Amino acid sequence: MKALIVGGVGMVGQAVARSLLSQEVVKKITLGDIVTDESRLHEKLRASDKVSLIRIDVNDHEALVQAMKDVDVVVNCAGPFYRTGPAVAKAAIEAKVNYVDICDDYEVINFLFTPELDEAAKKAGVTILTGMGSDPGTNNLIAKYFADKLDRVDEIALYWVIGLADLGERATWGAAWDHSLYMNLGNVPQYLDGKIEYVPAGSGDEMVEFPEPLGTCRLRYVGHPQPLTIPRYIKGVRTVTIKGGFLPAWVDELIKEQKEQGFLSLEPVEVKGVKVVPYDLTRVLWREIPENRDRGPVASGLKVVVKGEREGKRVTYSCEMVGRTAPGTGIPASIGALMLYSGEVKVKGVVPPEGCIDAEKFVEAFLKRGAKIHLTETITSLMGS
Description:
The protein is of the alpha/beta class. Helices cover about 35% and strands about 30% of the residues.
């Protein structure tokens, strides 16, 4: 297999490359990025004769298509995806090569899940697999894994928490932090009682327990795509919610204050005769956190809770995972790429993981790569309800 990783010098792009490098079937990995400084690459990537680095600008359509001509799968790790997703996906369709990304913007419904793009992908005979990271990605498939064991699915609750220290060096936050702020703006979709509702981002406070070193975390509604995609593929589910947050707690509280005070506004304001977008300024200033400020654990976590019914009894499934953000996102993307290459993914067109990937096979592959997943099942009688 030959793979092109767009945004390959970034933290997650390199994690995808390292995961692919461990698979014998992978013969060539091209890292495409606007940054071409080899010193920023992990030593395993620099040392491998399977890995090469080229300059790619996602705004250069012709160059993108040309870079894709000699590969089997394109993995897009260059965010923010509401900007890069359409450009890279359209180039993959023109090059007739399968595509996978780690898109976590809920607006994906508007810029990738369109009849035009879906039809173009089907006509080209390719799959545009979007949202194949950790969240979305792993937790979508864990939810599907549980749902497949139930006669009826009532509720799916998805949670994530990220330690600020787990994001790496502040200078490299870039698109990841852009998304972290952006998902806290405006009203965001949640699937409540059988229909999409738009609720204020940052509302719906809930204390959620994770394994150590994360502990009990305050999480809130955020803008991710699962409430829009999961009900399409897990039929009958009445509620799909997504809540997330950061550790330490001061991070979310500061984001909340910045939002309330207008520092995350997308509307330009005039400062001494110069138009400034508060959001852009605030995003840059987040890189200036004092070195002695608590940045929390070097770890992140996912939690999935699925409730439903089987054989006349109530069943609650729960899954908890704790690990590092980069491999936690990169490994699922690499599994998706390998499944596309092997032909295990049969669906053509634009599709999320839960719409085209066998959840049981994914969990098996994820565990083989060292993932540790804690699963619980609780069964209660319906009598007296």
